[in-house]
Fold this protein.
Amino acid sequence: VVSFAIFAHRTHGLSDRAVGGLMSLLVFTFALATYPFGRLSDRAPRACILGAGAIVSAIALAGVAISPKGALPGLMVATGLGWAAMFSAMLGYASCLVDADERRASMSLLQAAGAFGMVLGPIVAGVATAVVTRTSGAAAGARIAFWMAAVALASWVLAALPWLVRHARAEHRDRGLARARETAHHLGLQV
């Protein structure tokens, strides 16, 4: 959030009002899309939703770094959608990959990790911006935080790909079995 405000002012000369509007687009999209993605993650493999959200976010954040200011509203909406997909899938995992008596701790850990990212992100972005600005100029310095976030997300997807594929297949299989059992039950068959 802080990095975007600095970037938008330095790179595009946007007013505080325009920056606030763009940030509102991101947060509003995230807020509106989180519940539908949560419902989707109850029906589709969460691993697919998590991976797709990370890819969309990486592309959108890279786009913020290189696009003209006219593209920023769409990129902010895309980032909000990507973040909502990732957050919803992670909430689903935090609730189902642990025993029932460990769910509160799992949810708390997820929230703590997010809060830690909100603290650490601006620090890392600020240091990177200062270093890159000194070595490569203000324009490059203003963009580095978005490149770093995009590369981090893309790297995570690549590193997690075996896990994502394995979980997507298992979730698809388990949901198929659950639907078959439900259909058999409705038909009065013993399974």
